[in-house]
Automatic annotation (TrEMBL):
This is Urocanate hydratase. It is found in: Cytoplasm. Binds 1 NAD(+) per subunit. Catalyzes the conversion of urocanate to 4-imidazolone-5-propionate. Residues 84-210 form the Urocanase N-terminal domain. PANTHER family: UROCANATE HYDRATASE (PTHR12216:SF3). Pathway: Amino-acid degradation; L-histidine degradation into L-glutamate; N-formimidoyl-L-glutamate from L-histidine: step 2/3. Residues 283-310 form a coiled coil. Residues 213-435 form the Urocanase Rossmann-like domain. GO terms for molecular function: urocanate hydratase activity. Residues 441-644 form the Urocanase C-terminal domain. GO terms for cellular component: cytoplasm. Signal peptide: none annotated.
Length: 666
């Protein structure tokens, strides 16, 4: 069968031959054994229900072995034989162009160059899944190849529940991931429900088919690094940025450091992913010896190099060694997957990578103990650097939204503030509190992104040019309050091609406000209509102005007590659904951990039609201003400014504004 026929077949009518376990692929670690004997039988029954009864006797022992060996039933036998990658939208079978766009994006999320654990259908973060097993993938792609523009596919945590009669203005796909009852949202609950095959961790853009490789976070990380240096009144040139993690998301850090112009040291314990990032040129050099690393950093600083150095080892060793060597760290953070600390998100010091993986599966309690000991050491080493005054102010350390401070506090590390206030419980700020929130999100600037559905690099270059033209025109009349954001974005888009940011699909990310997103999308749609470029898929990171309610990250600069509520994210996805999104998603757990956040996203196909023009204006305006209005009601001054400006531009927008109280009254 050709590619189209394989998609249309779905789950094969005859069993394919078992596939060998490919050791050259970066695989997910074995999950801890958490099911009772009765629950294991239930997990097997749940897996077998995807297949005709005549296959059950053959598949049962195979699925049982997977469950015992890996802690999950992935159904490796059913992995497709075709190459997993985003193709030209014209290559996909189907009756709906919108459905074809979704197929393209699903395959991009599972591209070997993009996905962290492609054979386990995990895109990034150690457990951020597109699907739980390969039967779900096959069935979903089949449904998408059959659907019309008057049907909607309903996705329950990776499982395609089915195609339902709908209408052309409804989303073609509605995705929910991890929507468990709140009282069952602890990490072990996820382990159990996922092993049973009834729920999954969709992360943010993993389970919503909108991940575009590490580029997706490079821009945000670049802005963060630039503004972190601005906060300490230092130029990035010759400055030192120390962090850790080279996985799907965190792999963006060294690239962002290079673009910002500083020296970046990023530690990683996994040799495979370190090698991949080096081959992709996301990191310049790999070092395994700490003395050599120190010498290389000093040389880079002396020569004002913009260079990224990966240390293959534990980040704690770097912080401690740099303290011993009197090597000043200007800015520091951490982007290991601490939302997932007991299942491969963070590794203990003093153990090899292989030893840690074995301990994780066979002795999870000891593994947890070792991780918490390391977190205490990690925090202690950071504290030493932040308190140093011998070479000017100490290190500016910020939590990069990966739950580092949260998990360190739970381990008993010294990270709590001596004088805590509401929203400022920790010694160190979240990067959203100090940087992204007040400088970007409050004004409506967030990670808008697009994918060229043709797969042609020349289309991407053309969209870059269009976006740049729009921004350069807008900045002429932009108010002073957002001039810096506009300048940073123009600089970014002008350098996007030379920075070689594409991994997987021909995609781009750009921080833009509602006005910018609408104008750029309008210009794209017009260019498609005129035949200058092919179709474009619009989206954004969930990590945005409106998409995510996360008290220690996206909404950490909300100080009216509402940061633990999730009304904004839920309203966002509902509003996007009836304003024209092609697909929408809502997840529990993205970025900072199961039970710690609710986040939503969307995708929208631009095909050059008047209908697409109508949809984009309605949906993009809401998608941003929903969050600005919530931030405004929390008395964030930047958002009050932004929402007043939005109301002036759109007479039908009427938002409740807060009255500010004179502090002296108290």
């Amino acid at each position: 069968m050709n590619f189209q026929e394989q998609i249309q077949q779905g789950i094969p009518t005859e069993l394919p031959q078992p596939k060998p376990y490919e050791t050259n692929i970066n695989h997910a670690p074995k999950r801890k054994e958490i099911l009772t004997e009765e629950e294991k039988i239930l997990a097997l029954k749940n897996a077998l229900r995807y297949f005709e009864p005549q296959f059950h006797a053959e598949l049962l022992p195979e699925f049982k072995e997977e469950l015992e060996k890996y802690g999950r039933i992935y159904m490796y036998r059913f992995r497709p034989d075709y190459e997993m990658k985003a193709r030209d939208i014209a290559e996909y079978p189907g009756k709906s162009e919108q459905a074809k766009a979704i197929m393209l994006m699903i395959q991009n999320n599972l591209d070997y160059a993009v996905a962290q654990h492609p054979h386990e259908l995990i895109t990034y973060g150690g457990n951020g899944a597109v699907f739980s097993n390969w039967a779900q993938y096959l069935l979903t792609m089949k449904y998408l190849s059959e659907m019309t523009d008057e049907q909607t596919l309903t996705m329950y945590s990776g499982h395609p529940m089915g195609l339902f009669p709908s209408h052309k203005d409804a989303p073609r796909v509605v995705v929910t991931n991890g929507m468990v009852i709140p009282n069952y949202s602890k990490s072990d609950d996820w382990e159990k429900f996922n092993a049973l095959g009834v729920s999954q961790y969709g992360q943010m853009t993993a389970g919503s088919y909108m991940y575009i490789g590490p580029q997706g976070i490079v821009h945000g990380t670049t802005i963060t690094v630039l503004n972190a240096f601005r906060k300490i009144n230092k130029e990035p040139i010759g400055g030192l940025f120390v962090t850790s993690g080279l996985g799907g998301m965190s792999g963006a850090q060294p690239k962002a450091g290079n673009i910002a112009g500083c020296v970046t040291v990023c530690a990683e314990v996994n040799p495979k992913i370190t090698k991949i990032r080096h081959e992709q040129k996301w990191v310049n050099e790999i070092h395994e010896n700490l003395d050599e690393l120190v010498a290389r950093v000093r040389k880079a600083q002396k020569n004002n190099e913009a260079v990224s150095l990966a240390y293959l080892g534990n980040i704690v060793e770097v912080w401690e060694k740099f303290d011993e060597e009197n090597l000043k760290i200007d800015i520091g953070s951490d982007q290991t997957s601490l939302h997932n600390p007991w299942a491969g998100g963070y590794y203990p010091a003093g153990q090899t990578f292989e030893e840690s993986n074995t301990m994780m599966a066979e002795n999870p309690e000891l593994f947890k103990e070792k991780v918490q000991e390391t977190l205490i050491r990690h925090a202690a080493a950071i504290n030493k650097h932040t308190l140093r005054q011998d070479q000017g102010p100490g290190t500016y350390f910020f939590d990069y939204g990966n739950a580092f401070l949260l998990e360190a506090s739970r381990a008993g590390a010294d990270v709590m503030s001596d004088h805590p206030t509401l929203g400022r419980e920790f010694k160190f700020p979240s990067y959203v509190q100090d940087i992204m929130g007040p400088m970007c999100f409050d004004y409506g600037f967030g990670p808008f992104r697009w994918v060229c559905a043709s797969g042609k690099p020349e289309d991407l270059q053309k969209t870059d040019e269009i976006a740049c033209q729009v921004l350069e025109e807008m900045i002429k009349t932009s108010p002073e309050e957002i001039q810096q954001q506009m300048k940073d974005n123009i600089t970014w888009i002008k350098g996007a091609q030379e920075n070689n940011l594409v991994v997987g699909s021909q995609a781009r990310i750009l921080y833009a406000d509602a006005e910018g997103r609408v104008k750029i999308a309008e210009a794209f749609n017009k260019a498609i209509k005129n035949g200058e470029i092919g179709a474009v898929v619009l989206g954004r990171d969930h990590h945005d102005v409106s998409g995510t309610d996360s008290p220690y990250r996206e909404t950490s600069n909300i100080y009216d007590g509402s940061r633990f509520t999730a009304d904004m994210a839920i309203q966002n996805v509902i509003g996007d659904s009836f304003r024209g999104a092609t697909w929408v998603s809502i997840h529990n757990g993205g970025g900072v951990g199961w039970g710690e956040v609710i986040n939503g996203g969307f995708g929208m196909l631009l095909d050059g039609s008047d209908d697409a023009d109508r949809r984009l204006k309605s949906m993009l305006f809401w998608d941003v201003n929903n969050g600005i209005s919530r931030r405004s009601w929390a008395r964030n001054e930047g958002s009050v400014f932004a929402i007043k400006r939005a109301m002036e531009a759109e007479p039908n927008l009427k938002v409740t504004l807060p009255n500010f109280v004179d502090e002296s009254l108290f």
